[in-house]
Amino acid sequence: MSSSPFRDAGPAYAARGLAVLPLTPRGKQPLGRLAPAGKNDATTDAARGEAWALAAPHANVGIACARSGIVALDLDDRRGGEDSFHELTREWGALPTTWEALTGGGGRHLYFRHPGGEFRAEPAPGVEVKSEHYLVAPPSVHPDTGRIYEWDLSPDDAELAPLPDAWTERLAAPAARPSAPPEHRDDPLLEVPAATYVELLTGRKPDRRGYARCPFHADGQERTPSLRPYGDGGWACFGCPPRPGAGRRCLGGTIYTLAALVWGYPLPLRGPAFFAVQGRLYDVMLEHYRGAAA
Questions:
Q1: Residues 152, 101: contact at Cβ < 8 Å?
Q2: Is residue 5 reached through a cis peptide bond, with omega within 30 degrees of 0 on the bond before it?
């Protein structure tokens, strides 16, 4: 068991071009006296890495993701991460061989080349995307278990693989939460909570994380929910590609967009189609709220 994680690996990572920072010994927080700005103090300067190794050889090792050109999947099996990961690979495709570390807490870190852009923080239970933060890297020591982070496939054993396009698209954070079209902002239908109309229109109730199973892909049988209602009345599905010309990285919109998709009306809604959808929505909502008041 290594008692000097940063001395053993920090300078070597920096020499490889990875932005490293010292963490507290047997901890996950930046070592304040050497890296007071946290991940922003991470360096690829091997000489600085050597100086840190001399000053704090027992520090754990952190790798700043974005500054290293890395995005990583953090699988926490204690929260169902491996099961979630299996479902994601079934739906989105297998991932290429890449750097892989076994964490001291019994999980895994899968490293990939950062494709740019922003990512959802937790696409499924126990699966986190680390792109702007930092990773605790081998041979650090876990603060709770005392176990060492170890490489299963190290940078010496494998190339850093690119994150496949299918994963990049589905993990991408929405460019902006959908909002109501300006010409319809006084429409009372746009005041209906998204969680309410998503369940009414799709028959699928959001889970405890706020996601519902999407009816628009995987033949309506997806097992990892990807459709998210938002508090501002909009919704987005992170498993569906955007509509042509929509200018977004996922499918989404307002109550009208969802109703049109569910009922088979063309988008964007215009003229008679808009009024037909609006009339049906008023009927659905009126019946729902009458039932709730009964």
A1: yes
A2: no
At 184-211, the pLDDT tens digits run 556 889 889 999 999 999 999 888 878 8
Closest CA to 191 of 234, 250, 241: 234
SS3 state of residue 21: strand
pLDDT for res 185: 54
Closest CA to 156 of 16, 5, 7: 16
Per DSSP, what are the bridge partners of residue 219?
none
Region of residue 264 (phi > 0: left; psi between -120 and 50: alpha; otherwise: beta): left
**Could you state, in order of their start, the residue ranges of all structural domains in the chain?**
5-171, 182-293
Report the distance separating Cα 121 and Cα 92, nearest Å: 17
Residue 214 and residue 207 in contact, taking contact as beta carbons nearer than 8 Å: no
Query: Can you tell me the distance from the alpha carbon of 109 to that of 95, in angstroms, rounded to the nearest whole number?
Result: 13
Are residues 14 and 20 in contact, defined by beta-carbon separation less than 8 angstroms? yes
* CATH class entry, domain 182-293: alpha beta
